[in-house]
Amino acid sequence: DFCSLGGLEVVVELLGHPWAPLRAGASRVLGACAQNLPRAQSRALALGALPALLGALRGDPDPHVPPAALFAILCLVRAQPEGLQQLEALGGLEALGGSLQSPHPALRARAAFLLHCLLREHPRLR
What we know:
GO molecular function: adenyl-nucleotide exchange factor activity
InterPro entries: ARM-like, ARM-type_fold, Hsp70_NEF-Inhibitors
Oligomer: single chain
Strand content: under 5%
Protein name: HPBP1 protein
CATH class: Mainly Alpha
């Protein structure tokens, strides 16, 4: 119901909100909505969620936002060929590699988990 009522559109808009807790919360909601739901994943990707999330991963000044953004990225690209294509085209694999160097353990752990999953699902990425 959330997606059919336009909830994804609102959540994607909130990814760029000036208040960091709202950006982090929107990322978590987006991830929860998209996780293992191909229609929700496709809709979120079509709305431009992935570029916004990668922007947050690469350079959000609040330390709580990148791990939440990475959770949403994981939910958009695992078992979703369209999501993986967008991730590669947007330089997302490099951003994940950069996250492995983060001083924040939660971000490093999520990045390592997503890279592990992608390498197992898509051997060509090795």
